[in-house]
Specification:
The chain is α+β, with helices and mostly antiparallel strands and 132 residues long. The chain has helices spanning 13-24, 62-70, 84-93, and strands spanning 2-9, 30-34, 39-46, 49-56, 73-80, 104-106, 110-115, 124-130. It is globular. The chain binds zinc ion (ZN). The site of zinc ion has 6 residues, from strand 1 and strand 5.
């Protein structure tokens, strides 16, 4: 496993894209909406890992709710896994609560599942596997 990316919830992707472009000295390499999840994402490459900025596309979006409760900041940590279905079984056996047991298609050509933050010290964990 490695940290594939850090997800950061932002109010305005336009403002934050400007900020992160200045911070990292590079532009995003991709912007992508996942309408089913109510998010628009923007990705930056940092060596082996990435930063994913997340903006809500509607008030019901999980990102809108996160911003309401906690404000802007780190929303999730994503681990890269080789076999997401195997990891789901392993983590369920370890007692973790998997939020979606059937991996769904996320941004950046990935299958993703999330673990409930109540069981992971308050941090939302994403497992992701590249779709080949
Ligand atoms: Zn993510």
């Amino acid at each position: 496993m490695k940290i594939e990316h850090l997800g950061i919830a932002v109010k305005s992707l336009a403002d934050s894209d400007d900020l992160f472009a200045r911070l990292l000295g590079q532009s995003n390499y991709k912007q992508e909406s996942v309408e089913r999840e109510g998010v628009t994402t923007s990705f930056y490459e940092l060596g082996e890992s990435k930063i994913e900025l997340l903006e809500a596309t509607n008030p019901e979006s999980p990102i809108a709710k996160f911003l309401e409760k906690k404000g802007e900041g780190i929303h999730h940590i994503a681990f890269d896994v080789n076999d997401i279905n195997e990891e789901i079984i392993r983590l369920k056996n370890e007692g973790f609560v998997v939020l979606n047991e059937i991996p769904k298609k996320g941004a950046d050509n990935k299958l993703v599942v999330f673990l409930h933050p109540k069981g992971t010290n308050g941090v939302l964990i994403e497992l992701c596997q590249e779709i080949k």
